[in-house]
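Q: For a teaching session next week I want to show students how multiple molecules come together into a single three-dimensional assembly. I've collected the sequence lines for a complex. Could you give me the predicted C-alpha cells for the whole thing so I can convert them for display?
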Amino acid sequence: MSAMGAGPDHLFNLRNNFYLGAYQTAINNSEIANLSPENAVERDCLVFRSYIALGSYQLVISEIDESAATPLQAVKLLAMYLSTPQNKESTISSLKEWLADSTIGNNDTLRLIAGIIFMHEEDYNETLKHTHAGGTMDLYALNVQIFIKMHRAEYAEKQLRVMQQIDEDHTLTQLASAWLNLAVGGSKIQEAYLIFEDFSEKYPMTCLILNGKAVCCMQMGNFDEAETLLLEALNKDAKDPETLANLVVCSLHVGKSSSRHLSQLKLSHPEHILVKRVSSAEDNFERAVQLVA
Amino acid sequence: MLTKFETKSNRVKGLSFHPKRPWILASLHSGVIQLWDYRMGTLIDRFDEHEGPVRGVHFHNSQPLFVSGGDDYKIKVWNYKNHRCLFTLLGHLDYIRTVQFHHEYPWIVSASDDQTIRIWNWQSRTCVSVLTGHNHYVMCASFHPKEDLVVSASLDQTVRVWDIGALRKKTVSPADDIMRLTQMNSDLFGGVDAIVKYVLEGHDRGVNWAAFHPTLPLIVSGADDRQVKLWRMNETKAWEVDTLRGHMNNVSSVMFHAKQDIIVSNSEDKSIRVWDATKRTGLQTFRREHDRFWILAVHPEMNLLAAGHDSGMIVFKLERERPAFALSGDSLFYAKDRFLRYYEYSTQRDSQVIPIRRPGTPSLNQSPRTLSYSPTENAVLICSDLDGGSYELYIIPKDSVGRSDVVQDAKRGTGGSAVFIARNRFAVLEKSTSQVLVKNLKNEVVKKSPLPIPTDAIFYAGTGNLLCRSEDKVVIFDLQQRLVLGELQTPFVRYVVWSSDMESVALLSKHTIIIASKKLVLQCTLHETIRVKSGAWDDNGVFIYTTLNHIKYCLPNGDSGIIRTLDVPIYITKVSGNTIFCLDRDGKNKAITINATEYIFKLSLLRKRYDHVMSMIKNSQLCGQAMIAYLQQKGFPEVALHFVEDERIRFNLALESGNISVAVASATQINEKDHWYRLGVEALRQGNSGIVEFAYQQTKNFERLSFLYLITGNLDKLSKLMKIAEVKNNVMGQFHNALYLGDVKERVKILENAGHLPLAYITASVHGLNDIAERLATELGDNVPSLPEGKTPSLLMPPTPIMCGGDWPLLRVMKGIFEGGLESADRGGTVDEEDVEGDWGEELDINVDGMENRDIEDILAAAEAGEEENDEEGGWGLEDLVLPPELDTPKASANARSSVFVTPPQGMPVSQSWSQKSSLAAEQAAAGSFDTAMRLLHRQLGIKNFTPLKSMFLDLFNGSHSYLRAFSSCPVVPLAIERGWSESSSPNVRSPPALVYDFSQLDEKLKSGYKATTTGKFTEALRLFLSILHTIPLVVVETRREVDEVKELIVIVKEYVLGLQMELKRREMKDDPVRQQELAAYFTHCNLQTPHLRLALLSAMGVCYKAKNLATASNFARRLLETSPVDSQAKMARQVVQAAERNMTDETKLNYDFRNPFVVCGSTYVPIYRGQKDVSCPYCTARFVPNQEGNICTVCDLAVIGADASGLLCSPSQVR
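A: Of course. Below is the structure for the complete assembly, covering every listed component.
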C-alpha cells in the first residue's frame, strides 16, 4: 500500500494500531480530517475490522448498510461469519457469489475477507485461490500466515520477500517476518524477539506485542520472562484469549498450576484452539488406552 | 582549515602565541603591537612605541614579558602586566627582522638587515654575542628548542646553523676565573662563543625563513625561489633532504607543526600550504583573495596556528579536535587515532575495538566527525568529511576484544551525514536532492524519502524519526508517516543531545543552547558569549554543558550557572550523579567529580521539593550573595533567610517574605529609625497592630502612634499620649489627642494655655461649657468674638470603640507554600524537633494553596496537551493522499490468479516430525501421539495402567505449543516449542519438543516428600513420592549420567512408597498388634534416609516394646543406637536395651527374622527371604511373591508385575 509516495500518510497510525492489536485506540483515533474517499473507505474498513477483532460483530452488522462500498460489505460478511457460526453456510455461499462477480470479485478487501473466512474453514486451497496473487500488504501478510499454517515456510518466505521489496519497514512486513521467524525457529527466534522489542519501544504496549515477545521467550526456553510478560498482558486485558492460552502453556513449564487460566479460557473463549486441543487430547487419551489395552 | 579568530588591521609582520593564556601578539607594519585574546575575540592592549614597522615579536615562556624589534633598529622588552616598555636594546645598525627569547637563559636572539645576528642578555641588558657571517640581510634567526644551536636564514641564499655551546658554558660557569680570562679575550675579538656549524646552500634566491624541528634534527626553510626545503643534520654535517614545490611566489614563513607530522608554509602568493613531512607531498592549500601572507606562528602547546597577512591576521586550526563518540547505555564508543575504542563507565575500562583506518594513511581532516551505534546489531556508523562527506559501516565482531590490526572492509557510501534510526536501519542524507536514503545493514537502500526542508545534516530523534537541520531551523520528521512532528527556529545547530528518556532535547549552536521537548516545543534558550562545546543530561533532567572554559548547568526553566572552570576544553559524554564523564582533545576518557549541590538545590526549589530544599539547607554549606540574590529574584526570600547572618539583609529578606517576627528581631538588633519605620509599614499592612505600635514607639513617632491608638480604639493609651505631649510641651500633639479623645474641656484648656483665648472661648461656648466661656469672656473683655450665626453646631466626638486593642485579623502573607513545606519537612524529617509551632489552621490553608497551584499547573498542562492534540489534528488535513500506483496493479495479476496458481500441498507439522523421530514416550506424548507413547511405555517399562499418567500426558501435550495471534480475525498460529534452544541453532532444523517436566522439578518434589515424611504427614508424602514415580516415565534428560540418576531415583522413591504404604496400612490395623509389629519391622528395612530410618526404628521399637516383644524391640534399639541418634532417642533406646537384657524374650511370634536378609512383597507385605522365589515390577523394581505375577504393581500403580520390558528410556543419549 504505502510505497515511496510523497505526502504524509494519514492512515499510518490507524493502520499501525490495528495491526499491532491496539483496536480500541484505533477506533478512538479514527476521526481523521480531509481524507480522500478511498482513504475514508479504508479507514472505515479498519475501524470495523477493529470492532470485529474486539468481538463487536453485531455493531458492525448493523452499522454497515446495503449502500456501503464493497470493501465494507466484505467486512460485514466477516462479521456475520464470525457472529453466527451456525449460519456460516449461507455466508459462505454469498461470499462465493460475490467472488464470482467480475465487477467486485477482484476487490482487495473482499479477497482478504474471503481468505480469512476460508482460513477459518481450513480450506487452504480455496483461501489461496483468492489471496495468492497478493496486491496489498494485508493480502501478502495473510498469505504469509496461510503458508505458515500449512507448514510451508519456503512459500511464506517468498511472500515475505515481496513485502520487503514493497516496504521493508512496514509494520506488517515486520510482523510477518516475526511470524515467519518464529515458524522456522532456531536462531531466527531472536530476530523475531527483536522485532517485537522494536515495536514495544516505538508504540504503546499491546497484548499482541506482549504475547509476541512472550512466545519468543518460550521458544527460547525462557519461561520465567515469558510469564512476566504474559502477566503484564493479563493486566491489560484479563480476557485476551492468547494471553490466557499462553499463560496456560507457560505455567505448565514453570511448574505452576495452569487450571485457573484454562478454566477462564474455557469460559470466555470455548472455541479457542487450546480448549479444543485439550478436549480432543482427552478423547485421544481414552482412545489410545483402548487401543493399547 | 577552521578559522577561530580573525582581525582586520594594518599588515601583520610578527606574531607570537602566549604559551599559557589564549593570547596572541601581532606586530604591525604601522608600528603598533596588538595583544589579542583570540578566545574572547577582544583586543586586550596595544603597545605603540616603535617608530616604523615592527617585524619581530615574541612572548617569554614564563615571565610576563615580550620582546619586539622594528625598523627603528630598536629591540624593546616589555612587561605586559605593567603595560610598559621596560628597556630598549640598542646595537643593530639596520632593520630588525626577528627577535626571540631563549627558552631557558636570559637571552634574546635577533636578526637584522645589518647582516648580523645578535644574542642579548636581557637581565644585564647587554649584547653578549654578535654572529657574523651572512653577507646579506638576515631574515630570521631562532634558538633550537633544546640544544645550543641557532638557525638563521638570509637573503645571501644560505641557511646557517650556529653553535652557541661556548656562550652557554660561559653563562653556566661564570665563576671559573681562567675561563673568564680566555672568554674576555674572545669577547674582545668576538665570534668565538658562536661559530658557524653548517652553511646550508641550495636555495637559488634569498631565504626568508628557517626553523628547527621541535624534536628531530631537521630544519625547514622557505625562500624567494618559491621553494620549501627540508634539511637534515647530524653531529658532523647537514644536507638537503627534499624540496617542496608548489608556492607561486616568495615563501614568507615555514615551520613544523608542534604535534603532527606536517609542515606548514605561507607565501606572498596569498596561500597557506600544508605538507606531509614524511611523504613530502602537499596536503592542503588555503588561499586568500587579496592578502599576501607574511608570517606564521605555531602555538607551542595547542593545536593552533596563526598567520599574518596584508590586512590582518587569522588564528586557525587545521582540523577538528572533537573526538567522534556515541553513547549506548553504560558504554561509550569513540574514535581515537585510527581505532574505534570502547569505554565502560561503570568499570572505567577502556579498550580498543577495531581499527578503522590503515596505518600510515593521511589523517588530516579525515578523522571521524560523528559516530552512530546500534547496540543490538553491534554496528557502528562513522561519518567523516572524506570525499565531501561519507560514511563507513562496521559490524563489530562478537569477540570484540579484537587485538588484530586488520582493517575490516567496511561498507561505505557518500552522504552528508548517516545515523542509525532503528536497530538495523540507518538514514543517509543526500544533500543534493534533500532526501534521505534508509539503508539496511547490508548497505542496501530500503527506502527513499524526501525531506520536508532543505537539510544539511540529520540527527537521531527517536526510532524512525530524524531531526533535520537547515541554516535557521530544525524539524523532526517521521520517516514512516512522512509527517513533520515538530519544528523550531534555531541558530545553526551543531550538536543534538537527547535526554535518556528521549523526552527533552538540547540543541547546541555555537553560542546558544536551546532546550526543547521531543516535539520541539521550545522550553528555554540560553546564550553564551563563549563557544559551547558539548553537553549531557543528568539523571534529574538538568542539562550539563561545557563552553571553552566552563562546565555549566541549565535547569529546565532556563536558569543557568557555572559549576566550575576548565583549563582545557573537554567534551562531556555522560553525567552520572556527581560525576561528569568526558573526552579530552587527546581522546582520553576522564571522570570529573563536580559539586552538584547548587543546581540540585535550585532544581528542588523549581520543582517545589521543599523537603529536599530543607535538608540541603541543613546539611550543606550553601551560601553566598549569588545564592541569596537568586533566591530573592526567584521569589524565595524566606529560603534566603536561612542563609543570612547579616542583620540588615536578614531584615530586608524578612520584610520581603513577610516574616514579621524575624524582622522584629533584626530591627531590634539594628535599631535604626528607618528600619523601625519600614517594619511599622509592613506590620500595618499585615494588620499586626502590636508590632506597629512597638515600631512607632521605638521611633518615638507620636503622631502616628496616636492615630494608631485612635483607630484601634485604645483610649487609655491615647490619653497617656496626650499627657506625654503635655509633658513634652507639644501643643499640637496634645490638641490632636484631645480631639481624638473627644475631650472638650481639655481642648479648651489647651487653647487657653496656648494663648488662643478667642478660640478657647468659642470652643467652650459652642460646647455649652458656659461657666468656662463666661470666665474666658471676662478675660477677653472687649474682644469677645461673635459666634457664627445661622449654623447649628454639632458635637465633634469620635465614635466610642466597641472593642479595643489586639491585632486585627492578620493578612495571610505569602509565607504560604514554602513555610508550610519547610515546617512539614521538619516534622517529617526530624522527629525530635517538636518545638516547631504548629498552627494547624494555617497549615490547612497552606495545603490548599499548594493544591491550587498544582491544580493550576494541571490545568495548564492539560490545556497544553489539548493544544498539542489540536495541532496534531490540524496537521492531518494538509493535503489529500496521493494514492500509490500499487492499488491498480493487483487487478492485472489477480486476473491471472485462478489459471496459473496451484496450491502447494500442506507441509509437515513440527509435532509430526517429533513423533516420527522420537523413541521417547514423553516426546511422543507432547507430539500428541498418545498411542505411540503408551506402546513405548508398555514395551520399555511394562506399563499397562495409564490412568495415573493421564494428566501428565495432557500437560505434556498442552505445553508443547504456544499461540501466536498473527493476522487480525484469523485463526491463531500454534507454534511448537522446542527444547534446547540456543542462539546458534539453525532455523528450519527441528529440535525435540520442550517438555513441561524436568528432572530438577522431581528433585524438588523429592525434597518436599522427605520433609513431609519427617513431619509425619505420611499421606502427603506418599502422594508426592507417587507423583514422582508417575512422572519419571515421562521425563527426558540429556546425559547418561542423568539417566543413572533417574534410575537411582526410581529405587529411592520406590522404597519410600512401599514403606509409607506399609506404615499407613499399619495404622489402619489397630486391632491386629502382631501385624502391626510386623509392618513396623518391615518398614525399618526399607532403604530410608537416616533420620527417617531412625523414626521408623523408634516407632517399631515402641510398638514391639509395648507388645512385650522385648528381644525384637532391643534389636531395633540397638540398630537405632548405631545411627547415633539425638540424646533423647538414644536414652530411650538404651533403656529398652537394658529392659530387654533382663528378659530376652518375645511375647508373640512375628513373621520377622532380622538376621536373615529379605525384601518385602509390595502387595502382600510379607518378607521374601533371600533364596525364595519372587517376581518384580519391571518399572519400579518392587518385589512380589510369585502369585502376584500379572497384576498391576501396587507400588507404582503402573506396570504389570513380572512383565517383559526393555528398560527405562529417558534420554536421547541412550538411543544414539
